[in-house]
């Protein structure tokens, strides 16, 4: 049984800072008020009440009648009127308490007692309502009220009020934390079953504590579960946890590590002889902490309310928090020897619903045709397949070009199942070659057209392609020139294949290959934890399924003009290419001179009438700056879809994009290369917090699990794991390479069904609305401008420089959670007395040689002593930032 408490109007919502206690409500803030509201039916002697009040609160304490002689407050319900009274501020110099009174009907009154702070509410003779009850009884029976208790000076807090901190990031808030959280708040009341009240009392008696201490222990355990980090609490038995909680009867108890407070405050009874008095559930619309669990009753039922900051939480989330606390306490009182981390937070109904929502895998049977087969099916239509440089290439011409490439590859000895490297400049020929590689039964690896660093050479060594396709000779391409000198290297000049009218495809090539769904379609490279790139292979089934879904879901068919913006080697480039062609839209490759220059890209989007673009949030921010600075006729109004991927998406960026592009659908896509993608979320309204990564894509089950492989309840951070037939079959085999088996280990407790698992290393939690929220990385991988970068790979590359003795790389994260640059700490060989600027230039040049075109914005620090290390011998990175 629960209901929402009525909220009032906050008249003095002020936050101040205290160097010792963090964020505090200012003196006089309604967040510090203590109050109680009552409905009184029957005989109420107003003169006796005023006399009793002056005796209790002093002659200066006001009685504020709202037209007591007539019905008052007709425009408000009882609770709402009392909430407004409770929110009225106390000015400096006011008496520390006041009585509000209003007639609501014949022999019916509302009465509210309010104090400016806890010290004015509690006195030697008890709480204010009890003292007023005794004084009123004395007056109406002809006696004399006892002397009023001493009151602290107005404006003091009485030493009880809890302090607020900025450390409440572990709580599953609905919104991002403001720099100074306002004290506007709400509350949700709860009354749990008598059975839970009985079991709470029985455990308290057995443990030698109060029932309130049991509820406090449960609340503490809940907050620690949200933290996702075990300081020993999660492995502790609940019975043992009871021995460590303080006595909640003495003062409010703060839950360490979060801005959460537990308060045991019994209901303040008011007794009026000859009248029926009913206490009302009223809240004045303020909150002094992110969360405050106020316990009012423990017998026969556990009851009270959860107060929350409205800047962080929705009422629905507060109710789910209470549900989880009740579930935890029910399990803890049933088995107090169970470890805290193993206690359920969601009941069976919620668990089953969450498990069903996590799984969007389809029954086996339907097989999507390979992408090149689907594209070939558009050869008879009149639409444009590729538009580049003012030249339009139709589907018939594109597929004919692809067949020529397939024939040439076969003639060059690229047999079915072998890899082919493609390294070409943007244009229709490059797209035709991608299709031709698949038509030949080979699988492709797509390389950027520039850069020839050691990273690319390492990728080619691991790939061992049967052929490299260029759009010219290798003389002007350092990587191709290097590859040409490798044993068994084959080069194919696409310009000769596609530029000669006599180069006609053979019958077999024209028919095209129809591979098995599990045959390889491509290899994509990403950073590796060993300091070298990892080649991730993917099947035709996975590429076809995702491209088909993407093209249909985002209307990339006829009439769509899709920018091919993502750089090769980054697998979303393949997704946007084939999603467009499978759907029958027009692909518009972005010229290299335009692609990463927002000042040039925005006019290009307008000129080309682009309807779809996929990019990373950090670059979308740059585009937004250009768009907002452009006149109305220079904005990309044709843009119907903006797909954002590769990085955490800040809410403030989304709100800016929505304002600048009101008719554009905004999509947040998430997924590691090993699964192509995993989840998606469409933004349809204002964003108050971090944009969720959404819900699973078709064909995937996405779970959040703890360290014991148990599905994490809503609100609890864990590791994201993807289960799907479209998980990569594995990595390219590298002699002496690491064993990646643990990444693909099935989650315990799930029956095998032939689908593969991938443990992403990403942290996430299921929000209370069911959407997934990204919470960072569990290792040293970071996303830098949309590229997944392994910090240890950068360290390994820099350590190969003869002048470097050792180094460490740390990410610098801005307020939106985006990695904006890298902090590189280098210990040089020798005495380290050389020119610092010369050393830094040399190290930058070395990294450019290793990573080619990949931009690594870095700030270098040359150290004069060795890197700090911990007791285990590992680099202590926390010491580097001090």
Descriptive report:
- With 882 residues, the protein is α/β, with parallel strands linked by helices.
- It contains 25 helices and 38 strands.
- Strands 4-5-6-3-12 form a five-stranded mixed beta sheet. A five-stranded mixed beta sheet has the order 9-14-13-11-10, with helices on one face.
- Strand 21 (520-526) and strand 22 form a beta hairpin.
- Residues 1-23, 67-71, 152-168 and 502-510 have low confidence and may be disordered.
In short:
The chain has 882 residues and is of the alpha/beta class. 30% of the residues lie in helices and 23% in strands.
Structural shape: elongated
**Whole-number mean pLDDT:** 86
Q: Hey, roughly how much beta strand do the residues contain? A: 15-25%
Helix content, binned percent: 25-40%
Give me the side-by-side strand order of the main sheet: 4-5-6-3-12
Task: Report the strand count.
Answer: 38
Structural class: alpha/beta
Tell me which oligomeric state these chains represent: single chain
As residue ranges, the low-confidence spans are 1-23, 67-71, 152-168, 502-510
Number of helices: 25
Q: Biggest β-sheet, characterized?
A: 5 strands, mixed
**Rg to the nearest angstrom?**
34 Å
Distance between the termini: 51 Å
